[in-house]
């Protein structure tokens, strides 16, 4: 029986609108800021390979499962899980999956916004021409000046949070489609330009080899690579589920998931190919941490023909990419408040936005006055400050856990007749998806968890 439900928040105008919005959610700081710096910290090669495997074997099946649950439920993830659990005659505590997602989204956005603030401030830094002819040292000290100043970071964090609240308050569907349609290809084009510059540095091969020639890796790095596959595809917290709930019934979910995963992965690999040659050409270390792109790309902008214009456009597009991701991080919470508390979208967005902004202060201070307030959790992390801890717990624990439960619900607890009907795809593709989501994905996530805490050795 088809469920005769329709989201009260409205629907995407069609398949393309959904693909663009979900790609907008997936492509963001994760691809351009986070991927290069964590790949750099964990030695490249094998890390990138594990990440690619996780995208294909874990990310794509879970994305299909998550969109499917959302479209079947047609509500915010909390209510969707409640509804589906009762439809499938399962325990009502599955709503907890929705709540886990709301908490994860809120935690992630609180630091995401701070980093997006860095990108915002770099629009103006690049525009002022301060990077013209810059050296690695000069670029480094400009970055350190920014992050050591809590007031500056706070101002940019505030601006970014307001931008996010405004879009969420107006409804994520308005304007997103048109904007993503031409801004995403532009970002792509600019990345290609920077990769072109990277090819002229004489160290392209070195950067390429760093990214693709396998080396050593430990259990914790494997967990980080897997966590990043969830993070970069926006999986495991209901963002893609809530976008799926605005999807009309006629759309093919499987094709959309492939398209989104391919676009997302391409952007990340291009960002790596742009950055690592610049790292090696300037005698820098690839494991500089969260400042990596801000300490390398400006060197390129300072030396290439038309660098100021290219640099400004690049950071504008990066902010935009972060913006279309940020809105998906609080959409599940806002949709829930609208459904259950009868709030207006505006009121709900402001509420969640202000709370997120407050928590973000912890990440603002993590780069200056609280920098050395660190702690360690055996096996998982050492000397992590507030920002490091939030990032680790959300990306590497909460998202994979959320994804694991999504896979279990979709492939073990949901009747096959339901998922088959909802996916409405070719039998072979359905079987492939069902097999992966039932056996491969949950087992892989469990193995990675166990190896990170040292229970098994990979
Ligand atoms: N995927 C985005 C990025 O790569 C971040 C993001 C948006 C996200 N929504 C999410 C991460 C939901 C996890 C869950 O920048």
Task: Compile the SSE list and pairings.
Blueprint lengths: L14 H12 L2 H13 L3 H29 L3 H11 L7 H33 L8 H12 L2 H21 L5 H24 L4 H9 L6 H14 L6 H6 L8 H29 L10 H12 L3 H34 L4 H22 L8 E3 L3 E4 L1 H28 L2 H8 L3 H26 L6
Antiparallel strand pairs: 1-2
Bound molecules: tryptophan.
Give a quick precis of the structure.
This protein has helices at 15-26, 29-41, 45-73, 77-87, 95-127, 136-147, 150-170, 176-199, 204-212, 219-232, 239-244, 253-281, 292-303, 307-340, 345-366, 386-413, 416-423, 427-452, and strands at residues 375-377, 381-384.
How many distinct helices?
A: 18
The helical percent reads: over 70%
Q: Strand-residue fraction?
A: under 5%
Number of strands: 2
Low-confidence runs of at least 5 consecutive residues: none
Characterise the protein shown here.
The protein is globular. The longest helix is centred in the C-terminal third of the chain and has 34 residues, at 307-340. The protein has one domain (15-452): Orthogonal Bundle (Hydantoin permease). The protein has a two-stranded antiparallel ribbon with strand order 1-2. The mean pLDDT is 94. The protein is an all-alpha fold. It has helices spanning 15-26, 29-41, 45-73, 77-87, 95-127, 136-147, 150-170, 176-199, 204-212, 219-232, 239-244, 253-281, 292-303, 307-340, 345-366, 386-413, 416-423, 427-452, and strands at 375-377, 381-384. Bound molecules: tryptophan (TRP). Tryptophan (TRP) binds next to helix 1, helix 2, helix 10 and helix 14.
């Amino acid at each position: 029986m088809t469920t005769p439900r329709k989201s009260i928040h409205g629907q995407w105008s069609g398949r393309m609108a959904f693909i663009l919005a979900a790609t907008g959610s997936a492509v963001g700081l994760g691809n351009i800021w986070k991927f290069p710096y964590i790949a750099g910290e964990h030695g490249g090669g094998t890390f990138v390979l594990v990440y690619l495997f996780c995208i294909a074997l874990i990310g794509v099946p879970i994305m299909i499962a998550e969109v499917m649950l959302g479209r079947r439920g047609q509500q915010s993830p909390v209510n969707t899980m409640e509804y589906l659990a009762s439809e499938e005659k399962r325990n009502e505590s599955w709503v907890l999956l929705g709540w886990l997602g709301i908490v994860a989204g809120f935690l992630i956005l609180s630091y995401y916004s701070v980093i997006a603030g860095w990108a915002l401030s770099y629009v103006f830094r690049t525009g002022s021409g301060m990077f013209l002819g810059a050296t690695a040292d000069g670029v480094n000290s400009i970055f350190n000046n920014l992050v050591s100043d809590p007031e500056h970071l706070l101002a940019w964090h505030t601006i970014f949070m307001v931008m996010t609240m405004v879009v969420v308050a107006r409804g994520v569907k308005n304007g997103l489609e048109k904007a993503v349609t031409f801004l995403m290809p532009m970002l792509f084009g600019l990345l290609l330009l920077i990769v072109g510059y990277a090819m002229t540095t004489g160290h392209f091969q070195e950067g390429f080899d760093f990214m693709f020639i396998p080396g050593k890796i430990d259990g914790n790095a494997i967990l980080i690579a897997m966590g990043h596959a969830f993070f970069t595809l926006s999986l495991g917290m209901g963002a893609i589920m809530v976008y799926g709930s605005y999807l009309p019934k006629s759309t093919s979910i499987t094709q959309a998931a492939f398209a989104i995963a391919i676009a997302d992965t391409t952007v990340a690999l291009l960002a790596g190919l742009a950055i690592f040659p610049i790292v090696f050409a300037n005698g820098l270390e690839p494991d500089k941490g969260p400042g990596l792109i801000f300490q390398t790309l400006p060197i390129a902008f300072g030396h290439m023909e038309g660098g100021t214009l290219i640099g400004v456009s690049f950071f504008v597009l990066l902010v935009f990419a972060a913006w279309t991701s940020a809105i998906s991080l609080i959409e599940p919470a806002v949709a829930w408040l609208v459904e259950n508390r009868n709030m207006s979208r505006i009121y709900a967005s402001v509420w969640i936005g202000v709370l997120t902004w407050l928590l973000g202060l912890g990440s603002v201070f993590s780069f200056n006055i609280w920098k050395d307030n660190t702690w360690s959790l055996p096996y998982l992390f050492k000397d992590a400050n507030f920002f490091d801890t939030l990032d680790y717990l959300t990306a590497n624990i909460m998202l994979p856990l959320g994804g694991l439960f999504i896979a279990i619900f979709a492939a073990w607890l949901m009747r096959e007749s339901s998922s088959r009907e909802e996916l409405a795809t070719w039998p072979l593709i359905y079987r492939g998806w069902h097999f992966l989501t039932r056996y491969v994905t949950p087992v892989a996530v469990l193995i990675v968890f166990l190896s990170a805490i040292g229970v098994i050795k990979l």
